[in-house]
Amino acid sequence: MAIVITDSSFDELLGAEQPLVVDFWAEWCGPCKMIAPVVEELAAEYSGKVNIGKMDVDENNEVSSRYGIRNIPTVLFFKNGQLIDKQVGATQKSALVQKIEAML
């Protein structure tokens, strides 16, 4: 299951040893609902290897602003605390898998 990430928990996850994948979403966003099951699948498949979570942009605007999230869904990929890749808009699972595999 994907981690629920908040402004207050983000920096701790960012500093963890495992890479971090964050899906920025909102309840009212149709494309966000389309990729939500994919994010949940990836969280289960990469459990123990990659921290994968979701951040509601309506409830957590500090981190969203810090990374310039203007369109959702946006998925950010972090390794060693650094932003290394991103995916803006709904996409295929295979595209997200490719980006995650590149981090490992």
Put the structure in a nutshell.
By secondary structure, the protein is an alpha/beta fold.
Question: What is the number of strand segments?
Answer: 5
- CATH architecture label name: 3-Layer(aba) Sandwich
Strand order across the largest sheet: 1-3-2-4-5
Q: Topology as H/E string? A: EHEHEHEEH
CATH hierarchy class name: Alpha Beta
| Number of distinct helices | 4
How would you name the CATH homologous superfamily?
A: Glutaredoxin
Structural class: alpha/beta
Major sheet summary line? 5 strands, mixed
Percent range of helical residues: 25-40%
Low-confidence stretches: none
User: Could you tell me the mean pLDDT?
Assistant: 96
At the fold tier of CATH, the topology name is Glutaredoxin
Tag the structure with descriptive keywords.
single chain; 104 residues; alpha/beta; Glutaredoxin; 5-stranded mixed β-sheet; 4 helices; 26% strand; globular
Give a structural overview.
This protein has four helices and five strands; from the N terminus they run E-H-E-H-E-H-E-E-H. About 40% of the residues lie in helices and about 25% in strands. The protein has a five-stranded mixed sheet with strand order 1-3-2-4-5, sandwiched between helices. It has helices at about 5-15, 30-45, 60-65, 95-104, and strands at about 5, 20-25, 50-55, 75-80, 80-90. The chain has one domain: Glutaredoxin (3-Layer(aba) Sandwich), CATH 3.40.30.10. With about 100 residues, it is α/β, with parallel strands linked by helices. It is globular and about 30 Å long. The model has no long low-confidence stretch (mean pLDDT about 95).
